[in-house]
Amino acid sequence: DTDTAVPILESTDSAPAGKSSAVIANEVARRRTFGIISHPDAGKTTLTEKLLLFSGAIQLAGTVKGRKSGRHATSDWMDIEKQRGISVASSVMQFEFRDHVINLLDTPGHQDFSEDTYRVLTAVDSALMVIDAAKGVETQTIKLLDVCRMRNTPIVTFMNKLDRETRDPLELLDELESVLKIECAPVTWPIGMGKNFRGVYHLLNDEIMLFKAGEEKADGAFEILKGIDNPKLAEMFPLEIEQLKMEVELVHGASHPFDIERFLAGVQTPVFFGSAINNFGVREILSALVDWAPGPRERDATVRAVEPGEPKFSGFVFKIQANMDPAHRDRIAFLRVCSGRFEKGMKVKHLRLGREVKLSSVVTFMASSREQVEEAYAGDIIGLPNHGNMQIGDSFSEGEMLTFTGIPYFAPDLFRTVRIRNPLKMKQLHKGLQQLGEEGAVQVFKPVLGADLILGAVGVLQFEVVASRLLNEYGVDAVFEGSSISSARWVSSDDKKSLADFETQLGHNVAYDAAGNLAYLATSGVNLRLTQERWPKLTFHATREHA
Ligand code: G4P
C-alpha cells in the first residue's frame, strides 16, 4: 500500500544527492509535453498511433479501433470507446524521439467531454491540432482552439488525409486564418491529392518527400529529392510539378513565413500536410515538436511562480481515472510534474490534506501498459495510485505551500436523478458514483434532504458513459430519470450562519458534490435569481476552481 499517510516531516533544503541543478535543467530541456486535439474522425487516434510507431515505442500499429483487423488502437482502452468509436478518456503516453522525452496527452474530441479536454490541456505545453483536409475546420476544432487560446498554448497543425480528395490547400489555410483567427505558416506543401497525391514539398528545406502508400512502415521509408527544380522531379511528375511551382510562389507571397516567436506566443501555427494512415508526414511533426515547441515553462502556484528547473519536486493532479485497467481495479491520479525531480519512494506533501505521502509505486504510461517510474522531471506525467483521497487540482510539493491554479469545473446544464433496479446494490451505487464524481466523469450531487442522488453533466453522452461504467465496473444497473433541476451553482460565504441557515431552509435543493463543496440546485432561471436575491450574503459560482 503506497498511499499511506506518514507523519509530516520538515523538508530539507538539499536536492536529492547526486542530482545537481545542471542535471535537472538538462532533463527539463529534453521534455516536450503536448496534447493532441481534433474534431472526431479527423484522424487523431491514427496519428497518435503512428507517432508511437515512428518513435519505436510500439512495433506494430493496430488498425484504428480494430474495426478492420480485430486489433485495437493502442491509445483506446475503454470498451465504450470501442463501441462508439469516440475517445472518451484521455490517455497519456511517453516515448523518446531524438534524445527527447515526449509526453503525449490524448484528449476526447467529442464536445460532451470538453471539460475533461480542458483539464488535460492545462497540463500541456503545446498542442497538435489534426484537421481532416477534406472537411477543414469543424465545430469541435473551433472550441478546442478556444481552450488552447485561454493559455496561449502554441499549436502545430497537421492537415490529414491527403491520400483522399481534399479541399484546396490554399482555401484550407484561408479558412484556418479566418475561422480560427490564427496565422498560418505552411511548412510543407502537398503535391496533388487523392489518387494523384505525390508527396509534400518542404518549404523551409527545399526538399520533396515522395509519397508511398502503406500502413505499417516504422521509419523514413520515403524517398527524398533535393530541390524543387530537380530535373528528376519534372520527369516523374511533369503535370503536378508545374502546379506545385505556381502554388509555392503563391504561398511565399501570400502566407506568413514561419516565425518561432509568433508560434511560441500562440498567434501563429506551422502547418504540415500528410496522411496519418500512411504514416506520411509524421516524422516532420515530431521534428517540429522537438525543434520548435516549448519545453516546460514556469507555472503559477498562487504564492509565486514555480520554475521547472527548481531542485524541489512539485506538481498537480489534472485528471483522475478509475479502473483504467480492469485487472487492477484501481484509480490513478495523473500528476503533471512542475519542478524538481521525482524519485521512486520519495515522500511528498499532499498540500490540500496537509499530509505527507510516500510515493513508491508510481507509474508511467505506454497507452494501455504501464511501467514503474524511477524518476521524473518537469513536463512528465506520472500516475499516482489513489485510494480515494486525491482530487483533481490537488497540488503536491516537498513541503512548500504551493497551489497550482487554473483547473475549473463548469456548472452542469443537464441533470438526472438516479434510481437502481436492485436496492441491494445501493452501496455499490454510492461507491461508483463517488469515484466517477471524483474523476470528473460526471458531477454527483447529494442533496442535504432526501435520498435521491442528482447527476449533473455538461454533455448528454457523459450520462451514457456513467451508466455503462456503473454496470461494467461496479455491477450496478442504474436508471437515470429526468430531474426538475435546471442549473447548479456552487455557493460560498464568509458568513457561516447564513450558510447554515441556507442549508436547513432549502435542504432539498442544497447539495454537496463529490469533493464536498456546497451547491444550490435551481429548478429554473427565475428560481435561481430569486434565491440569489434572498440570500445576499452568499456568493453563487458558475465555475469552481480546484483548490
Ligand atoms: P479520431 O481519433 O480523430 O476520431 O479519428 P481516427 O484516427 O479514428 O480516424 C477516423 C477515420 O479516418 C478512420 O477510418 C481512419 O482510418 C481514417 N483515417 C485516418 N487517417 C487517415 C488518412 O491519412 N487517410 C485516410 N484515407 N483515412 C484516414 P475508419 O476507422 O476506417 O472508419 P470510417 O470513419 O472510415 O468509417
- Rg to the nearest angstrom? 25 Å
Shape: globular
Structural class: alpha+beta
Distinct bound molecules:
guanosine-5',3'-tetraphosphate
Average pLDDT metric: 84
Our measurement of the CA-to-CA distance between the termini, rounded to an integer number of angstroms, reads 26 Å
- Number of strand elements: 34
Low-pLDDT segments: 1-17, 59-77, 84-90
For the report, how would you describe the main beta sheet? 8 strands, antiparallel
Q: How are strands sequenced across the largest beta sheet? A: 29-26-28-27-31-32-30-33
Helix content estimate? 25-40%
Number of helices: 14
Beta fraction of the residues?
Answer: 25-35%
Characterise the protein shown here.
- By secondary structure, this protein is α+β, with helices and mostly antiparallel strands.
- 27% of the residues lie in helices and 29% in strands.
- The strands form eight sheets. An eight-stranded antiparallel β-sheet has the order 29-26-28-27-31-32-30-33. It has a seven-stranded antiparallel β-sheet with strand order 1-19-18-24-15-16-23.
- Helix 11 (426-439) crosses helix 12 (461-474).
- It binds guanosine-5',3'-tetraphosphate.
- Guanosine-5',3'-tetraphosphate (G4P) is lined by residues 38, 40-46, 64-65, 67, 87, 109, 160-161, 163-164, 275-278.
- The site of guanosine-5',3'-tetraphosphate has 21 residues, from helix 2.
